[in-house]
Amino acid sequence: MSLSTHRPENVCEWHISPLTKRYGDQRRARIKAGVLEKMSAMKDGVLTYLDGLTASLIDEDLITTPNMSFIPFPPFGDRNVRLRVDGLYGVDDHTRWPQPYNELYPHYACIRRPIIDSASWEDLVLWASPDALGFCEADSIASDLWVVDPVEVPKFTEVAKQIRKDLQALIQDAKDAGRELPAAAQGYDAALVHTVSRLHHIPYRKNVLQLLVREVQRTLLESDGFVTYWKRFWPQFSKLRMVDEVLPAAASDLMGAFTPDPEIAQKFASAGIPIWLIRSASSISQTHTQVKQWCQPSAPSVFLCLEDTNPLSPSIWRGTADHRGKYINMHRYTITHLVFRDPWGQTIPVYNDSEFDPILRTSPSIGVVRRATSSSTVMFSSRPAGDLPNSTILPEYVQFASVTGASASASTSSSLSVPAIPAKRPSESRGGRSRKKPKSVKPGFHAPPEPPLMPSKPSAWFYAFEDAEVDVGLPRQMSQDLRHYFFPSATLFANASSPARQLANTMNWLFMRSAWIGHLMSMHQPHGLQAQEWRDLLGMTAYHSRRGETTHAQRHAEEILDRVFPGHRFNQQGPTIVYHQRTLPTNCIPPDDILRDIIWEVNEANLRMEVASLLTLEGEEKNILQVDDILRPIFPGPENTTFTFWMPIPSAQGHNRGLSADRWQDRVDAVTHLGRHLASVWDDDAMPEAMLRLRTIWNLHTTDLNADEFHALEKMIAKYYCELFYNNFGRPPTVPRRLFDIQY
Questions:
Q1: Around 612, how many Cα atoms within 13 Å sit in the side-chain half-sphere?
Q2: What spans are recorded as compositionally biased (Low complexity) (predicted)?
Q3: What are residue 570's phi and psi, to 5 degrees?
Q4: CA-to-CA dists, residue 70 to 7, 53, 292, angstroms
């Protein structure tokens, strides 16, 4: 693509009038370029990829397309890419305007073209402005927080489910056929989950929520384009075509791409992908290129919002539009700052290394991968060695995920073979302790009797609590900060000995629940509160009455609120509150079935975050929100769901799952995956041999265990997990609970 300096700066963003004045008279443009005689219109004959069904001259550049009836104005020159007032990137937004072909993102040409005026709810989900979808002020403790209209959220979920279904079918087909796919296949699968799940009743500031909606739309469109490219068009590229064969009609509902490369133009035109070829007009020979119709290039200002935000959004990329760094920085901006800080006015450290792409980091089994410059397929590889690509990026903000030795060892192995597990790291101060028992080691955690409403523990975990070897002096040697809880302890809602306190704990938690989840997800490394902090926070009465009461607990709770939700005003609790579409009065304890759901949910949420914390404490992956596919086998959810492991939802299907499944056969997968991850991460000489053997099993689904063998292994893994967690965090772990009491 020509980037010569004769063209006015930022001409692609001109309004229609000056653009028409300069480029509307195409005959004059050809005379000025000295190519009038060479570029006469063709009368008949078969179009080739070098010919123009339509064509435009833009200064000295000739743009032709063999399969489209219009010429979009290309984003020429050096671009200053930034968010505009509609939450999009203007002419540089690949979901709204054709972009130069990029070998790392060839599927962007297969993103669907915008359909703005359609009445279809699917089209509204993909392209409507955030304001058109509708926001509602959140019913939560912190003010100035908003959620997407609850009527619209299921529509996003349905579209995401269908795209994920198509994407997973593509991955499976490639796996069955032994065909290579870009690593971004699993990256998009994870990105769909992590973006759409954040729409579910989690409140944000309005400008952040607008950015979130746009990013969800971008993820849906990119993922859909990825499936379309690799399933529908990629097989066409290898088919032989006769020289005089008529080109297929273009898929006019797709975005298409610009390219200066005739080979790309031939490949796309032969497959039916919209393509615009850009060449220097002075180098064109009439014998090689003929044009049917000349037209004025379409002005982006007619179709796109180019108005800047106030204050001006930070620049996320400066450079040519054909550089992959533009898209890399779009993804990085979202991944590091949509999760979830105020996007306006922050200085964003950018990735300028073309061999790294954060979209791949959204899949923990892939991570950041090196790619060969000459290759158009990004495959699995081991973690890159050497310095970071940009010294302005702090190491703690760059997340790497490891792959198994098997998947990284040879290029001949299937890139979609097995999920990755954290690389085992020799433990320094925590793992691999000497097993010489100090005098303070006692058997069992000696937990107090549980309230009747507490859901039951599976037997293996009950016995693990009884049999674990506990160094009772250890907590005094460890930082108190390690003993935090991501969510309040379930016993705060189950203890009926003080109904007034039980009511306050329950309703105050439901009031702050969504805001707290949003707060956790806004942290680079999520961190909870101490047990006493939770007791003070949930027991306070400031939600119901004026602030400023003088008790120590009240002051402490208000300090915590100000720390967790800085800069927010706080709402007062109303007469009712909604929990999972159920409206509850706030002046009485919920019915037992709903209360059990609440208790199970906070217990399950703590359990999942604690397992993630333990596995990332010594593993390569340090961000616990980035290990979704590692934990998914341990905490399986309903099929086709967009909820992630850190958002447990009480099941309406009447059976327990994962580590708490009722039948032992249904627990095998979850228990063995937990055991293998523990064995792979922790280097412990005293680890039981049966757990160590799990590291060597390629496919845990093939594990052949009878009931007795499995129960012995389950007790071993549960006991080891409880001891390991206690030795690293200085408190007993949260253990699995059964939502439903079903006996087999």
A1: 29
A2: 410-420
A3: -115, 135
A4: 21, 9, 12
CB 343 within 8 A of CB 208: yes
3-class SS of residue 132: helix
Token pair belonging to 152: 């619209």
Please count the other Cβ atoms lying within 10 Å of the Cβ belonging to residue 477.
8
Give me the count of residues in the chain: 744
- Label each residue of 42-58 as H, E or C: CCCCCCCCCCECEEEEE
SS (H, E, C) 497-561: CCHHHHHHHHHHHHHHHHHHHHHHHCCCCCCCECHHHHHHHHHCCCCCCCCCCCCHHHHHHHHHH
pTM of the predicted protein model: 0.75
Nearest to 25 by CA among 57, 65, 68, 72: 57
pLDDT mean over 670-689: 84
How many CA atoms lie within 13 Å of 45's alpha carbon, on the beta-carbon side? 18
Predicted pLDDT at 286: 62
- What is d(CA 289, CA 260) in angstroms, rounded to the nearest whole number? 14
CB 502 within 8 A of CB 493: yes
Q: How many CB atoms lie within 10 A of CB 368?
A: 21
CB-CB neighbours of 355 under 10 Å: 17
Alpha-carbon gap, residue 235 to 54, rounded angstroms:
27
Distances (CA, A) of 520 to 154, 491, 625, 645, 647: 23, 21, 10, 13, 11
Which residues on adjacent β-strands are paired with residue 259?
A: 277
Residues 6+ apart with CB under 8 A from 95: 88, 111, 114, 217, 218, 221, 222, 255
Task: Decide if 294 contacts 27 (C-beta within 8 A).
Answer: yes
Distance, in Å, from the CA atom of 156 to the CA atom of 175, rounded to the nearest integer, reads 28
pLDDT at 699: 65
DSSP helix/strand/coil, 68: coil
Nearest to 418 by CA among 691, 623, 677: 677
Return the structure tokens found at 668. Answer: 């095998």
State the Cα–Cα distance between residues 304 and 213, nearest whole angstrom: 18
Helix (H, G, I), strand (E, B) or coil at 279: strand
Burial of 691 (0-12, 13-18, 19+ CB in 10 A): buried
Alpha-carbon distances, residue 120 vs 127, 196, 562, 721, 723 (angstroms): 11, 19, 43, 50, 55
Provide CB contacts within 8 A for 122, sequence distance 6+.
155, 159
- d(C-alpha 409, C-alpha 207), whole Å: 45
Q: What is the mean pLDDT of residues 459-467?
A: 90
The pLDDT of residue 595: 94
Q: How far is CA 25 from CA 13, 264, 573, 690, in A?
A: 19, 29, 66, 79
Give bridge partners of residue 320 from the DSSP assignment.
78
The residues facing 54 across adjacent strands are: 65
